[in-house]
């Protein structure tokens, strides 16, 4: 299912081929590869993401349209170094200027595994000294966090991030093109408890088999992320344009010296022209927490999809039967601790009763962390995705519990 319309000129050979890497949360690599194929970009699935080679226009396209990636890196250099003398020699050969504008600073994120140069602080010092000397600016560090961790403040996002990875004495240097992580669409300022990251919500929708012409219900919607991401999909609104005016959020690559604003404007214009006026089917969310529903409406307004979704304050027991079948897609509480799991059995059993009594023809996709709780719903279920949410191993399962 092609979900994005793009400007084909972005795939023309406007410049020399560059290697890019779309970082993903674990388990989402195949979804990102499929999204890239919809953009006519042939990616190669690797652990932790998808790589491809092409002109810079493909990076523009991917940045605008990918729904399940965390960030996009540009490969700068790769070399082998077993001593700091070797490392410094290689660093002096790297041209940093294509990735750093006249304003803002530079920050580093360094990791080292199974390498002779194992001291990340010492590696950072060499990079900071060489880059700072070459560019005449201060260089900060980011403490070796993962590429999909949202560890930076808005001020830090103004600085150009370089990601440095040592593994078995090989050093891979990449420039971050995204700035703020891609899950930060900009609409979600109000959140309920245990918020679901936007990229994972989109991943569940894409992996489930749901299509925008089918009704969607999340009866445990919290701050509304799943219905809102469903509305963005249904209306073909690119994630960075999730606002009433459909103006794109900013990216790090827009500060690079070779950024082409007119070319970017054409890509954005093509995406804006492809946006549907409204969603073709109902997109519903409910929650017994009135505060969560208030937050959901606020998020929908900021995303520019207030007219496409409907949120209600109601418990599972008050969900009404519908004349048309659709999809129930939700992220129920996991109950990580044993006592919590006992308390949640009734909630999961109520989900099962909802299917059997009022949604017998509906499909479902659930994010689950505990098979014993899932059995309370019924089944059978098929696993379509395995990943992590908030550091907790989870899986996405699909089925039709009320069909028996």
Describe the structure.
This protein has helices spanning 29-38, 56-65, 84-91, 120-135, 154-157, 198-208, 225-234, 261-273, 290-303, 338-357, 371-377; strands at 18-24, 44-46, 49-54, 69-80, 106-113, 139-141, 160-167, 170-176, 216-218, 283-287, 310-313, 327-330, 363-368, 381-389, 392-399. The chain has 404 residues and is α/β, with parallel strands linked by helices. The chain has two domains: 8-176, 2-Layer Sandwich (VC0802-like); 198-237 and 275-403, Vaccinia Virus protein VP39 (Rossmann fold, 3-Layer(aba) Sandwich), CATH 3.40.50. The mean pLDDT is 90. The relative contact order is 0.12. It has an eight-stranded mixed β-sheet, covered by helices on one side. Strand 12 (327-330), helix 10 and strand 13 (363-368) form a beta-alpha-beta unit.
Characteristics:
404 residues, alpha/beta, VC0802-like, Rossmann fold, 2 domains, eight-stranded mixed beta sheet, seven-stranded mixed beta sheet, 30% helix
In total, how many beta strands? 15
- Helix and strand content put the structural class at alpha/beta
Round the mean pLDDT to the nearest integer and report it.
90
Give a quick account of the main beta sheet: strands, pairing sense, barrel closure: 8 strands, mixed
User: What is the distance, rounded to the nearest whole angstrom, between the alpha carbons of the first and last residues?
Assistant: 30 Å
Give a short overview.
By secondary structure, this protein is an alpha/beta fold. The chain has helices at residues 29-38, 56-65, 84-91, 120-135, 154-157, 198-208, 225-234, 261-273, 290-303, 338-357, 371-377, and strands at 18-24, 44-46, 49-54, 69-80, 106-113, 139-141, 160-167, 170-176, 216-218, 283-287, 310-313, 327-330, 363-368, 381-389, 392-399.
């Amino acid at each position: 299912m092609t979900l994005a319309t793009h400007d084909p000129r972005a795939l023309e050979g406007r410049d020399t081929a560059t290697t890019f890497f779309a970082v993903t949360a674990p388990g989402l690599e195949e979804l990102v590869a499929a999204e890239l194929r919809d953009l006519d970009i042939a990616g190669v699935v690797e652990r932790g993401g998808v790589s491809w080679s092409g002109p810079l226009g493909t990076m523009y396209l991917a940045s605008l349209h990918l729904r399940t990636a965390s960030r996009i890196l540009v490969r700068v250099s790769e070399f082998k170094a077993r001593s700091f003398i070797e490392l410094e020699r290689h660093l002096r050969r790297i041209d940093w200027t294509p990735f750093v504008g006249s304003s803002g600073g530079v920050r580093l994120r360094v990791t080292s595994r199974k390498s002779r140069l194992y001291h990340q602080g010492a590696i950072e010092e060499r990079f900071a000294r060489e880059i700072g000397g070459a560019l005449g600016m201060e260089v900060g560090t980011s403490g070796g966090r993962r590429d999909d961790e949202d560890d930076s403040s808005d001020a830090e996002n103004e600085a150009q991030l370089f990601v440095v990875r040592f593994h078995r004495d090989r050093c891979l240097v990449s420039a971050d093109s995204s700035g703020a992580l891609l899950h930060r669409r900009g609409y979600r300022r109000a959140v309920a408890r245990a918020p679901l990251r936007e990229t994972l919500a989109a991943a569940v929708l894409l992996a489930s088999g749901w299509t925008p012409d089918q009704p969607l219900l999340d009866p445990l919607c919290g701050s509304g992320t799943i219905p809102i991401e469903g509305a963005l999909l249904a209306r073909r609104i690119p994630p960075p344009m999730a606002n009433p005016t459909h103006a794109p959020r900013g990216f790090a690559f827009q500060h690079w010296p070779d950024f082409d604003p007119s070319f970017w404007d054409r890509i954005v214009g093509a995406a804006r022209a492809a946006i549907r006026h409204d969603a073709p089917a109902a997109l519903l969310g409910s929650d017994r927490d009135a505060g969560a529903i208030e937050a959901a409406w606020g998020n929908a307004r900021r995303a520019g999809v207030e007219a496409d979704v409907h949120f209600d304050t109601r418990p599972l027991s008050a969900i009404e039967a519908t004349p048309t079948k659709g999809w129930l897609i939700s992220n129920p509480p996991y109950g990580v601790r044993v006592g919590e799991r006992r308390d949640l059995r009734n909630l999961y059993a109520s989900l099962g009763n909802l299917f059997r009594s009022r949604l017998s023809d509906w499909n479902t996709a659930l994010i689950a962390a505990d098979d014993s709780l899932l059995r309370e719903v019924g089944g059978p279920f098929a696993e379509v995705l395995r990943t992590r949410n908030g550091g907790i191993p989870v899986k996405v399962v699909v089925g039709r519990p009320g069909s028996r």
